[in-house]
Amino acid sequence: MTLQTTSPIFLGMPSFQKAAKDALRNTQQRRNLAHATSTIRAKRAAVVGEVDRWEELRVAGADAKDEVLHHLPHYLEQLEANLVANGATVHWARDADEANRIVLDLVRATGSDEVVKVKSMATQEIELNERLEEAGIHAWETDLAELIVQLGHDRPSHILVPAIHRNRAEIREIFRREMGGVGRPAPDDLTDEPARLAEAARAHLREKFLRARVAISGANFAIADTGTLVVVESEGNGRMCLTLPETLISVVGVEKVLPTFADLGTFLQLLPRSSTGERMNPYTSMWTGVREGDGPQDVHVVLLDNGRSHVLADDLGRQALRCIRCSACLNVCPVYERAGGHAYGSVYPGPIGAVLNPQLRGTGSDVDKSLPYASSLCGACFEACPVRIDIPSLLVHLRTQVVDEASGRSPEALSMKAAAWMFADHRRLEAAQRGATLGSRLLGDRTVRSLPGLGAWTQARDVPSPPPETFRQWWARTHGYDVEEAP
């Protein structure tokens, strides 16, 4: 039985402000988010506090990523050469369509009609599951949180914990309602105890692991000088996908490259502390091409651009490509905690999504135009980021771009043009002043609450009432002659 996804495409969503307003009405989701993010924040603070030279680690991580971003073609070519030398096949994908076509062709070549998947944001970004389902190939998510989202016909709400907006009772109902339609059903006596829910997921997935011939993964890191791909996880499902199937296809964003294997040590300290609040990940899997008799014998790596070159071209904006998808910025953001991830209209929610999405996709849609404004600019995201991405500065930078692109069309821009035209000639200014005094007489003592086209801006501000007379009129009345005639 095919597991269908009924949720709308993210890009079809309204602006962040409208979506967030709707999300705020979901009080259960707000309680779930507040509990989860506060718990993760406390765990992170404890393990980060144990590291005496945490700031030096952050600087080292940022420097390693910047080294790659400033010499990306060199490191990508080095990565490709080492992958090929170790028996892997490398494919280059300019965009989502090309990446999906490559993966679809590779799966079809095996004759398989299903794949098991390691949690991968890159494949969610390109909507790979949907494309595979359209072609009659079932894509089974094996990460527990991703399984919950998939079975619930839902969308991810968090980078690290996609089902963070669900509580245990909701998850129990999803498992009981949906599991039997796509595999082994949940036990009749299933409770909402975490151990029982995990047991039900394990039994449901085991049959899929054992029969799968193809697995699809992403990668947390790709080491240029060895050709090694790295996946870190907490449950062991990734290890099952990376070792049991005959064919392994990894879709990897080009920004995931690290220069040397030695650099990995820095990130294996930064990532688990920043993401799950752990000193190290329970499972760290590495593979370098093909090893006869050990693991998949047909290994493919799809290196994905999909807008990353556009981000790279922006001297300030490229620092967003340092992101290691830890979600620390989400867990400290007061806006995310209240609105949740769905309001951001992308697989990348929270502060990093607010800067990454408009750069990857452009600002052609309402949601991408609105994302740079999905922040209070409090700066907590920068303090939490393990690779020192200055998200507040990037938000201001992107706000400028949005305004510049709308130049001449927004109410503010039209108002400024009208003001410039008026101030360019004293006769126009005097006429406008006389008109303002007429408005004052018509309004009387009433306060102006809003202006046409600027309602949102004036909702929180009282516009001063126009004066009953201009300075020129006051001067003529009190001194008996016009100001221009004064000595």
TrEMBL record:
Span of domain Lactate utilization protein B C-terminal: 406-477
Domain LUD: 76-304
Lineage: superkingdom: Bacteria
InterPro entries: 4Fe4S_Fe-S-bd (IPR017896), 4Fe4S_Fe_S_CS (IPR017900), FTHF_cligase-like_sf (IPR024185), Helical_ferredxn (IPR009051), LUD_dom (IPR003741), LutB/LldF (IPR004452), LutB_C (IPR024569), NagB/RpiA_transferase-like (IPR037171)
PROSITE patterns xref list: 4FE4S_FER_1
Single biological process term from Gene Ontology: lactate metabolic process
Single Gene Ontology MF annotation: 4 iron, 4 sulfur cluster binding
Domain 4Fe-4S ferredoxin-type: start-end pairs: 320-389
Alphabetical UniProt keywords: 4Fe-4S, Electron transport, Iron, Iron-sulfur, Metal-binding, Repeat, Transport
Name this polypeptide is given: Iron-sulfur cluster-binding protein
